[in-house]
């Protein structure tokens, strides 16, 4: 295996991942697999590009060397950023699917049992239909075959996620300081992203969520130029990223005195996170984690509810989402046991405090040998700007109604 000095992990890490994938291929009776999901390509080879909207595929035979098919421009990423020694680039005027089929035949896999990721975002149905028509029999859905390895992070991956956490914390700290009345949501977002990038972070799969006042009740709402007004709260959710690995956290800012209902929400979320961290360890089921989070949050007397899942796996991600929830989400009825190396974003947030405010405190944790641990050290209490306000000159901003 070719090794580059600037690869995210040592060559041995990729060798382990590849050998484990091939073991699962044998278990499923597959002669080769075609990997098209950007996260899975990154996991297996260190390949990353922002040009993943163009078709790209890694062919992994059981014994022969893997080969990458990609747009000609993106082949430079294969050469410069991965351990792969074999690649084929197709021109913008070329046909990616025909290139894929001809390559499989050149590798003497034309009559083989070949797995492909049927649920991959970037292998759309019309391309799959053409692939089936051109290749013929022998295609098998192998979606999830790489994810079975991704769900448990190695120590090397945990260390990279910790670097993502440092960047995320730096961004969140800057956002908490900036999100006071008189500032705009845009300025808060700018402060978060600048601090993340200065702390060594890279572009996250999702930029920060910044929602002030009534806009916090709009799901996945983010900055929109609105000025934060006295007495309003600000909901923040930030995902730090390093080498495509992510950690995420929610925090809340209050401008003005902390009301009884907001204090109660703060304390309930803090207590819930503490109880979750005490519960989570190898052997505890996903359903048990969800039940604890849901029971505690729904015991509130301030009119809020947990409107979503209780959390989700997190790790490698490209836009449009930073989560690995499609691999594993914390949901009722899932009896899968937690395992050492799993990593989760825990989100016991509260939607609709007294009907008008969404607030959040969340954590990203890793399952250890006998428990779990957080990636973060940032305080969980709401940040309260009780009297401070930033006064902007009239020409600086024309507030929206």
From TrEMBL:
CDD domains assigned: APP_MetAP
Keyword Lyase carried by entry: no
Domain annotation Peptidase M24: ranges: 160-369
Domain Creatinase N-terminal per the UniProt entry, residue ranges: 17-151
Pfam families named among the record's database cross-references: Creatinase_N, Peptidase_M24
Gene Ontology molecular functions: aminopeptidase activity
Family annotation (Gene3D superfamilies): Creatinase/methionine aminopeptidase superfamily, Creatinase/prolidase N-terminal domain
The keyword Glycoprotein is assigned to this record: no
Signal peptide: none
Keywords assigned: Aminopeptidase, Hydrolase, Protease
PANTHER family linked to this entry: AMINOPEPTIDASE, XAA-PRO AMINOPEPTIDASE P-RELATED
NCBIfam families: ectoine_DoeA_2
Record-given protein name: Aminopeptidase P family protein
Species the sequence originates in: Brachybacterium saurashtrense
